[in-house]
């Protein structure tokens, strides 16, 4: 592409962005990340996933983003690298243990986890402090990880449904193990309350279990018309609207763009469905992210199919499978990427800000990281 | 061991003033001479007592080098050269030389006239200081003296900013000043060749930052301007007449064209005059592509931007005005500000740092009521926006620069060591070089391993190669014998004979003689023979000869026997040896002093 042509496109998108975003920040990391994880209201962790040496970085978001009253007087727009560390393996999954300065990672090569101390004010080095064994006998793929606030730091992890375990970090003891009839590879793990969690499998099944009992988990079968090679990703809405775990909602997204929303009270049924307009590039199990907005009703973000992050409002969906149009599309990564090898850029990860309703962070395969606060231009909706 | 010493002047952890001392190959260089903008007392000046307790600095410094015109890099220069005292050369690039005195004078006016300070440099001092300046061109080696040479490289950042390469013999240091590695609209990216300096000195302040893109900063600027215009407000942009102003003008012009906006944009006449002057400086200082943009787009041929007349400030409706000076401390920008400050629809956008004591500084600190001349108060109701457009390197940029220059050691100033461990580890791991982080006032000594080139005469080389076995062993070092002649700046290794010839000296042979007394009843001849036999059994592997002239020779050592005149049983052995056989000779004399074993025949 001619350089001037490229600049024009960028200009158009940027000029459009004046109306479509409240805030917009564009950064370039040295190496792309597949993980973005909040470690506090103002800091996130990112990490590399090359096959050899990688960095784990804790970044503080720009002060300008949070300076609500005196925003104009704050010129600080940059990320600050507050802590950093090195690892010899890729980081495919990274989870912060709430209430601690600990993160847990998995390299995608085995089901074992690495434990890290992010460090405090007296040092800027992220240090490896230990490991957690995963289940033995796992054929391929890495572990998914989940954690919630608890008096004793614990981590829920597993690569397959049979063998998901809840491990105490300090003692290394396993306090709970999930037992399922089949060993289905997992695409995610989510806590919906202190004790209830969901194990989302790539074949579309969702297990609902309670760590306090040894009773068999509830199984929500995969949505109908799911083929053999179709992959599924899941997210569960949690938080204040979910004081009663059974009122939590589950969204399942397939690699063909089919989306099903269910209620925990009736996990087998579907509250609503939609066919999303996703460009079907060949997706790996690791690439796609689907997430409920924590501070907006019925909003879902989807990424990994292309260089865009799409926001959908599921409030207008029905039980009939119909095409849904995104409420908003963040095309920043696709538009500003200059890929040398002709391989189009795709979004590797996204997260919502836990409190600011429309603020997201997204990362792409070219190493870019964007922080954006989009404007809802629709009359109704989120 | 040869070493280079680096000391960042300053106290404790304070950041905001650059002044670094480097001692290399017997030369002392001061890099930058900045003012700390946060202090009002003497702490704002670097502490020169490190160089000398009292008196002028001329004898202690070989040169001073200034990287660019920002006050935290040159603000203390007139103080240092005229009030403390320095008469040696001060090196800086041409644009820096042109712009420095203007900024210094502005700064002086604010500090003295507005704040009434007394211990400060005068206008005349600024002029006298600038007389000592020797301007530099990019990539041109300048000999400061016989041994010290410096060279400037393009740093980006601001007009005229340079990174500097300092060399004494085969030791060298590169100081980056402030730089950026991503090109700007009007400035390119820093560049340096693979010069492999012993030390690369850089700021640590930006090393732990990941910068938001230029486009996002511009977006914020356009968004703010547009929002104000849309609500009918007026936007004041105080600028210093340099590249930044021109860049923002181009940005607004493009935007106005794209959006088909009608509100007028003005720049004040003060800006026009100065800009013309700097425009010429620009041309040599920017790269080809940027030069094309500026040549095509003449400063005053904007479609939407017109020259300002002060009566326009009272016109109704939205408008944007670029006016000098940049910190709202005087002149037209301040006048306009006073008129527009009372309306909350209006906006002022500050595109850079403002010195303490200026209105700009006050409003950026949130002050909403200002005391003006004549005790009147100004209510600040307009929107105040602080935007930073300056181009700086970040974590990634530092790594890129190290990759470019390939230094043997890295040194980062102005950082807290405990907060920089990760970066230090990163640099050490990726490049296998040491990374030093001295605190202000602390000296770091870096041992260098300079190579000393020496010529060797062909004859000597051939001769030495002929010695030793048939097969040379490249891994095994061998001692060689020669004479080192140092003439002017060259070193040469030659054989001793050649050295003597070249120097016109006679060769002298040194021989030692010693007498040993022995009790031996035999005849002189027999005693000699007994000595011969004894030595042959003790000194195996040595050449021992019994010569017909009545001497025994061990290598070059000659042994003669004679009887004492008083007592024929007392034999006197005369030993004589040349300097080369000193060890053997000493050994023999000690051995023979012990006498001959009785069992000899």
From TrEMBL, chain B:
One example GO MF annotation: hydrolase activity
Subcellular locations according to the entry: Cytoplasm; Nucleus
SMART domains recorded: Beta-Casp (SM01027), Lactamase_B (SM00849)
Entry's family note: Belongs to the metallo-beta-lactamase superfamily. RNA-metabolizing metallo-beta-lactamase-like family. INTS11 subfamily.
One term under GO cellular component: cytoplasm
Protein name according to UniProt: Integrator complex subunit 11
Keyword Zinc: yes
Gene3D superfamilies in the cross-refs: 3.40.50.10890, Ribonuclease Z/Hydroxyacylglutathione hydrolase-like
Gene it is expressed from: ints11
Segments forming domain Metallo-beta-lactamase: 16-229
